[in-house]
Structure formats: structure tokens, C-alpha cells
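Section 5.1 Outputs to date
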Amino acid sequence: MKAAENPRVLDISPMISGETIAAANGHPESRVVSIAVPGELAFRGLVSRAVATVCKLACSDHSESETFCHEVVSAVGEAFNNAVLHAYEGAHGDVSLTVSFDSNQVIVELAESGAAFDLAAVPDLMVDDPQESGMGLFIIRNFVDELTYTPGPPNRLRMAKRLPQ
């Protein structure tokens, strides 16, 4: 049974292609991996492993690849948590993730159809005031080079991180 026939069936559609995918990030040598999962915290590990694998492929020639991969995976994990906990707030929905990379950067786009928010209205974290929650965007902002959010539907959070030199 396919996911289109039953919304509770997990649809994992990875596509790693050596073909030119210029639309992904403007570079002809890009590769793209896409995955769609239910918007449930139980699927965070699957999403994180997929992103970690792509990061390792993207920066296999760099000595700082471990730190790079940890930062991207952490940012995506926080973005996934935010989609599940805040955008869907107990409602059911899917989260789609597209990870593209080329010789310069890794770009991750997370899409969901939950409640939108205003990224610019979320204040920076006050480091002097320790918190147990509310650190997701702080982590994302500090681990990626570019962060944009486009309300939808679907809502799209785009994170880009340049590969280490």
C-alpha cells in the first residue's frame, strides 16, 4: 500500500541524482535528497540520519566535516521539533524535507502545512537568562549561514550552510 492510499503509511522518497538539478540551488552539480514523514517526534531520528548522510557525502573531503555535520543535523532537528510542536500543535500533518548540496554548500528546506509564524518577530535568546525551552531558533540561527522562512501553505524554512574550506 502506498502513502497516497493511506496517510499513515510512511513515504520515504529519497532521490540522489547525479543529474543537473540547477533549480535546487543554482549550481549545475547539485544533488538532492527528499523525504516526507508524518509530523511526529518519533520521526526526528529518521530525518536526522538522512541529513547526516547527505552532510557526509557533501563534505567528505573536508577535515572539519564532523563539526559541520553536527551543526547541520542539530539545526534540522530543532526545525523539525518546531514544526511538530508549534506548527502542528497536536494536529496531524506531514513534514517534507529537501536537502541539496554542491561543492559550496548544503541547503535544507523543511516544509509543513501547520500554523505559520513570523521569524523576524522571534527575539534573540538572552544568553544570561538560562531556559529549558525556546532555544530552537537560537540554535538554528547559530549553526547555519542563511535562514529564511516563507509562510504558506506550505510554510517553508530554508537553511543554508557553506561547506568548510
